[in-house]
C-alpha cells in the first residue's frame, strides 16, 4: 500500500468517525417553481395535459414535470418556471427573495403550504392567464427528516436548529425547521440565494450545530 492509498483510507476513516459523532445529510438547492392544483393545471394547459416526470426529485413521489410557465408580477416576469408534480390541493409559487423583488412581489418567508395572508400573482401559458389571490412564498429553509432518522440526528418535528454548511464559503444557517415524516428522504432544502451564499455545489452536506 502506497502513501496515497494510506491517505485516502485515513480520510475515509476520519469521515466515518465524524459522521458517527455528528452525522451529516445532503443539502439541495431548489430553484423557483410552481405547484399547481388540478383545476388550475386544466385551466392553463387544457384537459388533455397531465404532469409527466422529466426528473424525479429526492423526496419520494416528487418530480419536475415537462411544463414550464411564466409568472407575472407588478414589475416584471419570470419565464420558463418549472411546474413540480404531483398536483396539490392549492396552487403555490415558490421564489427566492431576489426573484420576488425583481418582479415586485412582497413574498413572505414561509414553510410550503403555509399560504394564508400571502400575495397572489398571475401565471401565464401563452394567451391563458390565471391570477391567484394568494400563494406566493419564499420557502423557509428546512430539513426533511425520515422518521427513522430522527433519533440519529437527535431532532423532532417542528424543531428549529442551526446547520453548518462546509462549502467554498462556509457558514451556519440559523432558523432551520425540522420536518419529520415516514415518507421523507432526509435532506436539507435551501433556495438559490442561500446556495450562492454558501458556495453550493452538488453533493454538499450539512451538520446540525449542537448548542
List the helices and strands and how they pair.
Elements: H1 3-21, E1 24-30, E2 33-37, H2 38-45, E3 53-56, E4 63-73, E5 76-88, E6 92-95, H3 97-102, E7 109-110, E8 121-125, E9 128-132, E10 136-139, E11 142-146, H4 150-153, E12 160-165, E13 171-181, E14 187-191, H5 192-197, E15 205-208
Parallel strand pairs: 1-14, 2-5, 6-10, 7-10, 11-13
Antiparallel strand pairs: 1-15, 2-6, 3-4, 4-5, 4-8, 8-9, 11-14, 12-13, 12-15
Short summary of the structure?
With 211 residues, the protein is α/β, with parallel strands linked by helices. 20% of the residues lie in helices and 43% in strands. It has helices at 3-21, 38-45, 97-102, 150-153, 192-197, and strands at residues 24-30, 33-37, 53-56, 63-73, 76-88, 92-95, 109-110, 121-125, 128-132, 136-139, 142-146, 160-165, 171-181, 187-191, 205-208.
What do you see in this structure?
It is an enzyme of class 2 (transferase). This protein is of the alpha/beta class and 211 residues long. The chain has two domains: 31-139, no CATH class; 141-209, no CATH class. It has five helices and 15 strands. The strands form two sheets. Strands 2, 3, 4, 5, 6, 7, 8, 9 and 10 form a nine-stranded mixed β-sheet that branches. A hairpin with a 2-residue loop joins strand 4 (63-73) and strand 5 (76-88). The longest helix has 19 residues, at 3-21. The N and C termini lie far apart (41 Å). The mean pLDDT is 92.
Distance between the termini: 41 Å
Order of helices and strands: HEEHEEEEHEEEEEHEEEHE
Over all CA atoms, what is the radius of gyration? Answer: 19 Å
Number of individual domains:
2
Largest sheet: 9 strands, mixed
Number of strands: 15
Mean pLDDT: 92
Helical content, roughly? 10-25%
Number of helices: 5
Structural class: alpha/beta
Sheet-strand content, in percent, reads 35-45%
Low-confidence stretches: none
Shape: elongated
Amino acid at each position: 500500500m502506497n502513501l496515497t492509498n494510506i491517505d485516502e483510507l485515513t480520510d475515509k476513516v476520519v469521515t466515518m468517525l465524524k459522521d458517527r459523532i455528528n452525522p451529516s445529510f445532503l443539502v439541495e438547492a431548489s430553484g423557483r417553481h410552481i405547484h399547481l392544483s388540478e383545476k388550475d393545471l386544466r385551466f392553463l394547459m387544457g384537459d388533455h395535459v397531465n404532469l409527466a416526470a422529466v426528473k424525479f426529485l429526492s423526496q419520494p413521489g416528487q418530480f419536475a414535470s415537462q411544463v414550464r410557465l411564466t409568472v407575472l408580477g407588478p414589475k416584471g416576469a419570470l419565464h420558463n418556471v418549472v411546474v413540480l408534480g404531483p398536483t396539490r390541493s392549492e396552487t403555490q409559487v415558490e421564489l427566492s427573495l431576489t426573484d420576488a423583488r425583481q418582479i415586485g412581489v412582497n413574498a413572505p418567508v414561509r414553510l410550503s403550504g403555509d399560504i394564508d395572508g400571502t400575495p397572489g400573482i398571475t401565471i401565464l401559458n401563452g394567451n391563458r392567464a390565471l391570477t391567484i389571490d394568494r400563494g406566493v412564498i419564499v420557502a423557509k429553509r428546512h430539513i426533511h427528516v425520515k422518521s427513522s432518522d430522527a433519533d440519529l440526528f437527535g431532532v423532532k418535528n417542528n424543531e428549529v436548529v442551526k446547520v453548518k454548511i462546509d462549502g467554498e464559503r462556509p457558514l451556519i444557517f440559523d432558523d432551520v425547521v425540522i420536518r419529520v415524516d415516514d415518507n421523507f428522504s432526509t435532506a436539507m432544502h435551501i433556495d438559490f440565494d442561500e446556495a450562492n451564499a454558501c458556495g453550493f455545489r452538488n453533493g454538499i452536506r450539512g451538520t446540525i450545530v449542537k448548542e
